[in-house]
């Protein structure tokens, strides 16, 4: 016979099952809401409701108690006030990447621009999708080296009805691009190889995190391409300690401006180069 639980009992049970997970009572609510596909109000007003068939929920809770990120379990992530599909092949979008999107929007004042934007390292698709929503006449080509990430991006692009405006290409950096590029944007992997990370990060694709022996190798390769192809704008996220090296790298080159921006914790987090 299947066990029956009241909503309030189930919340207590899964909070306990979550063990050492921080904010366990809140995580229990989030897991239950995602499992039942209900909102906060439903949860508050249905505490006495009886539920059966929750075995799958218990599997979710076990995965979460082993530190798997909530987003991979529920296959959903909030970013820039929108809900996106997410799965293990793609990095979970980080809040600071909103600032990279704002950076691009700030640079291109004309919302109707017909620019060709290229994104390198599209991951789940959040950057190209939000920029394509903002710049309704622009064309987007988004590259990733990972087939799994491209699958996640494809699902999100279809969810937002942007298949005609964002083209996905498999490949490394700008290799798959022959077109002239007006604006290059990227949140590339930029962590130094071998740095040990928290356990929850071990669930994320490692080629989305590690950028090379120093960490900034891919950023420098992109800078080389920007200079070679004379791409007018390049906005890029970077590690908090990479500003000086990037500035030095561009020391002997001609450009119009190089502006760095900080993240919500006041760490250096990215830059825009304008040629
Ligand atoms: C930090 S994630 C960014 C994902 C997404 N744009 C975001 O901001 O959440 C970096 C992405 O770059 C991809 N990547 C790594 N090396 C690459 C390369 N050489 N060329 C293209 N993409 C690459 C990874 O597969 C990953 O999807």
Description:
This protein is an alpha/beta fold and 275 residues long. It has two domains: 5-66; 85-274, Rossmann fold (3-Layer(aba) Sandwich), CATH 3.40.50.150. The protein contains ten helices and 13 strands. The protein has helices spanning 7-17, 24-36, 40-45, 55-65, 70-74, 97-107, 126-134, 147-159, 217-229, 243-249; strands at residues 5-6, 50-51, 76-79, 82-85, 116-120, 139-144, 166-170, 183-186, 191-192, 210-212, 233-237, 257-262, 268-274. Strands 7-6-5-8-11-13-12 form a seven-stranded mixed beta sheet, with helices on both faces. Helix 8 links the parallel strand 6 (139-144) and strand 7 (166-170). The chain is elongated. The mean pLDDT is 96. Bound molecules: S-adenosylmethionine.
Low-confidence runs (pLDDT<50, min 5 residues)?
A: none
Query: What small molecules are bound in this structure?
Result: S-adenosylmethionine
Give the CATH topology of the largest domain: Rossmann fold
User: What's the arrangement of strands in the largest beta sheet?
Assistant: 7-6-5-8-11-13-12
Number of helices: 10
Largest sheet: 7 strands, mixed
CATH architecture identity of the largest domain: 3-Layer(aba) Sandwich
Write down the secondary-structure element order.
Answer: EHHHEHHEEHEHEHEEEEHEHEE
CATH class wording of the largest domain: Alpha Beta
What count of structural domains? 2
How is the secondary structure organized here?
Layout: E1 5-6, H1 7-17, H2 24-36, H3 40-45, E2 50-51, H4 55-65, H5 70-74, E3 76-79, E4 82-85, H6 97-107, E5 116-120, H7 126-134, E6 139-144, H8 147-159, E7 166-170, E8 183-186, E9 191-192, E10 210-212, H9 217-229, E11 233-237, H10 243-249, E12 257-262, E13 268-274
Helix pairs in contact: 1-2, 6-7
Bound molecules: S-adenosylmethionine.
The site of S-adenosylmethionine (SAM) has 24 residues, from helix 7 and strand 6.
